[in-house]
Design goal:
By secondary structure, the chain is mainly α. 64% of the residues lie in helices and 8% in strands. The longest helix has 40 residues.
């Protein structure tokens, strides 16, 4: 949705009307707001997945180290 600020009357000098009439304030639509929220959620999910992947890697390393300490024998 666009809002045009027309606080000066149409009888104002043409230079002032051009400046005022060309000032358009963009208000984000619901789709814009939804898109931004969705993008933020996706970024958060990517960050969380990165943490999960890192923890999985550390867990695998720990398991391999335990196996090595046991002499490669599994029970």
């Amino acid at each position: 949705m666009y809002h045009i600020d027309v606080s000066k009357p149409k009888t104002a000098p043409i230079d002032e009307r051009i400046v005022i009439d060309s000032y358009i304030k963009h208000e984000p639509s619901q789709a814009d707001v939804f898109g931004q929220a969705l993008a933020q959620m996706k970024l958060k999910n990517i960050q969380q997945q990165s943490v999960i992947d890192g923890l999985g890697t550390e867990l695998t390393k720990a398991k391999l180290e335990i196996i090595a300490l046991k002499g490669g024998k599994s029970k």
